[in-house]
Amino acid sequence: MTLLKTLAATALVIALSAQAQEAVRPEVGRPLQAAQELIKGGKYKQALDKLREADAVGGKNANEGYMVERMRLAAASGAGDVETAAKSFEAVQGRVSGADKLRMIESITGSYYRASQYAKAQQWGQRYFKEGGTSGAIRTLLIQSQYLSGDFAGAARELTTEIKQAEAAGSTPGEDRLKLLVNATLKMNDTNGYVWALERLVTYYPKKDYWVDLLSRLQRKPNFSDRLALDTYRLSLATGSMTQANDFMEMAQLAVQAGSPNEAKQVLDKGFAANILGVGPQADRQKRLRELIAKKVEEDKAGQAASIEEAKAAKDGTGLVNIGLNQVFAGDKAGGLKLMQEGIAKDSLKRPEDAKLHLAIAQITAGEAAKAQATLKTVGGADGTADLARLWALFAKHGSKTA
Question: For 314, left (φ over 0), alpha (ψ -120 to 50), or beta?
């Protein structure tokens, strides 16, 4: 109601000014003045009734007609009679200033929105911006009107433009805007737009729920390789979005199979520390796996020197990459990274994109986020590797804020 009252007050000021400049016959002026007082008192419907008396006067000149419509616009806006307000606006808009015109359109837009007439609110909101308006509040009403009227494409277009403009200006897009874009693209089945919005949510508001949604969406992509399951689990664990006992168990087993028992031990330790593992009907099984992996860690440590020599002698550098990653998880960050870089330098890797992704994960684990960012930029692949690298890059940049 504040906006409506502001419009009414503005109308009255201009009306009084016009009256002072041009004579208004008493038979028109009296009901106008009465309507003015009623508007001041918030009695908008009574003001509309009084203006009908002015309407009934015959032979009104252009100024008198303008005064009546201007006053009716104020009264109708206050009374919530948006159709009447809109008609009055069309009658007077040629004689009002640009700023005053924008205030009128702003009020009509808001009135249609509050009346749940979203298609008309959308129409008037677009008109407001065509007339040069810049109000963020009206932009919000326009976007929400588009969404609520079923124009998801229009809402998504406006939101995407707004978000890109905020980013270009170095500002943080609003979380509510990003969530609305997520919902709009979901309604449209626009997977690319949906992921684009989700990626910005985890960039600026890296909450666990957003990461869960994004990683789930990534794994459902048709080209996403099952081979990347462990790397996806790694990101899920790093973002704090892994909460299921089965996921901890499967990740630990995949890590062992990948030659990283030290990582498997860390995974299980985190699961037990969070009381996700070691409780419930599967507790014994989980404890047995923990004991088995502890033995594997000791065996790996005993044969580490021989394994490194064998890997260095091999033509393929994959062995060195795997051993180096395991050492990083064991705590030997500098030594592990050195081995990984030696393996990649052999330039004879079966899966070079995987190796670079793993090097970046090791760099993040070692606290070298900037180097990891540089490494991740070099990761390609059409099987989901590049997609996963992009998400790891988001985490490397903003991961410490995950909540």
Answer: beta
Q: Please classify residue 64 by burial: count the beta carbons closer than 10 Å to its beta carbon, then call 0-12 exposed, 13-18 middle and 19+ buried.
A: buried
Closest CA to 39 of 85, 72, 75, 93: 75
Residue 5 to residue 11: CA distance in whole angstroms = 10
> Is residue 102 within 8 Å of 128, Cβ to Cβ?
yes
Q: How far is CA 103 from CA 1, 166, 262, in A?
A: 14, 25, 66
Query: Which residue is it, tokens 């000014």?
Result: 17
- Residue pLDDT, tens place only, 379-393: 999 999 999 999 999
φ/ψ region of 370 (left if φ > 0, alpha if ψ in -120 to 50, else beta) reads alpha
| pLDDT, tens digit, 9 for 90 and up, residues 144-202 | 999 999 999 999 999 999 999 999 999 999 999 999 999 999 999 998 899 899 999 99
Tracing tokens 């008109």 back to the chain, one arrives at 127
Residue ranges making up the domain that contains 180: 159-205
Domain total in the chain: 3
> Is 37 a member of any domain?
yes
The residue that leads in pLDDT, 111 or 295, is 295
The 8-class DSSP code of residue 43 comes to -
Q: What is the spatial distance between Cα 270 and Cα 273, in angstroms, rounded to a whole number?
A: 5
- Residues 371 and 340 placed together within one structural domain of the fold: yes
Please give the structure tokens belonging to residue 342: 């030696």
Together in a domain, 260 and 195: no
Same domain, 201 and 245: no
Q: What six digits make up the tokens of 308?
A: 């490194």
Element (H, E) at 383: none
User: At CA 101, angle to CA 165 and CA 96, rounded to 5?
Assistant: 145
Task: Note whether 96 and 236 are same-domain residues.
Answer: no
How far the first Cα of the chain sits from its last, in Å, is 38
Q: Which conformational region is residue 347 in: left (phi greater than 0), alpha (psi within -120 to 50 degrees), or beta? A: left
- Contact present, 272 and 280 (Cβ < 8 Å): no
Same domain, 134 and 253: no
Rg (CA), the chain: 33
pLDDT digits 0-9 by tens, 315-351: 999 999 999 999 999 999 999 999 999 999 997 898 9
